[in-house]
Amino acid sequence: MRRLWAAVLTACLTLAGCGGEDADKHSRQFFAMDTYMTITAYGPQAESAMEAAEERIRHLEDVLSVTSEGSDVWAVNHRSSDRAAIGSEAMEVMGAALAVAESTGGALDPTIYPVVEAWGFTGDHQQVPDGDTLDAAVRRTGWERVQVEPGVLVLAPGMEVDFGAVGKGYAGREAGRILRDHHVKSAIVSLGGNVEAVGSRPDGSPWRVGLRAPDAEGHAGMLLVRDAAVVTSGSYERYFVDEAGQRWHHILDPKTGYPAENGLLSVTVTGPDGLLCDALSTALFVMGPERACEYWRDHGGFEMILIEEGRRIFVTEGLAADFSVFPDYTEDVVEVHR
Ligand code: AMP
Ligand code: MG
Predict the structure, then answer these.
(1) pLDDT at residue number 21
(2) Closest ligand (CA of 108)
(3) Which of 47, 174, 258, 269 is deepest in the core (most CB within 10 A)?
(4) Smallest-distance ligand from the CA of 104
């Protein structure tokens, strides 16, 4: 009897999943938007759907990149007057970014590029700018001074835009939309730290998304999702260490021009709209734990996980059943209520 079971088990494993669940598994990897992306999709439409999704992401990179000549963002930042024509995608991203800029009191600012440049975060060489340089850069920012007209952005001289905080979220949302349009029922897109889950796993169970530990190798916990984006902003994702040994990370407080320092190490936002999740993850990181919880109570429409220095984790109540912390990482978990 034992031997029979062993034989059945071997057969199952060889078929890669008893219900044939893995038989129709397809995946695709590519480098875009400065990160490795992976799409895994199931079903007969998977290959053509993934190809279309990759094409869409590459197109969005061409349009939204702040560093490639010829992108809409490049055209805005190298405009010869205060007006610059942009396409519908860049306009959609700008609209969403401005809405979150407004609702978060400017914690997200799509015109922060002069400050990002002063720190060197878009290039290979990072440095701590001197106070005057930073002040001058901050004076060139200001989302309230952006005017949107049909197909045109109007910006004061010296202002520059950067969609680094929202571009991947938009790309994930678009990839998800294209996979669904191709009738894919089950897929997961990973864009660096951002995830877009389409449907559920082929067996109907939710997708499992690991949450990176911001201060160690490995994971801090696991999130179960269906048809949702999971987007993380973390100080560990991009930073440099100066000669004095001090660490400086890439999520900047638009009010001061300095990296946001409020005790947070990472902010994960999950919800149906990847673009909104990406905008919020950056903004809530800047706002810090108290204001982030206040914002969640006032606005809703998303759930979040905050990881603080000292490994305290705040989890909003909507995730109570879907998020589990690995006890090896921490047991200091606080549920955030309305
Ligand atoms: P994310 O990883 O989505 O939080 O985005 C971080 C990136 O957005 C940075 O590398 C900068 O390019 C840009 N950025 C940094 N701080 C801000 C901010 N307060 N508002 C908008 N963009 C920002
Ligand atoms: Mg973001």
Answers:
(1) 54
(2) 1
(3) 269
(4) 1
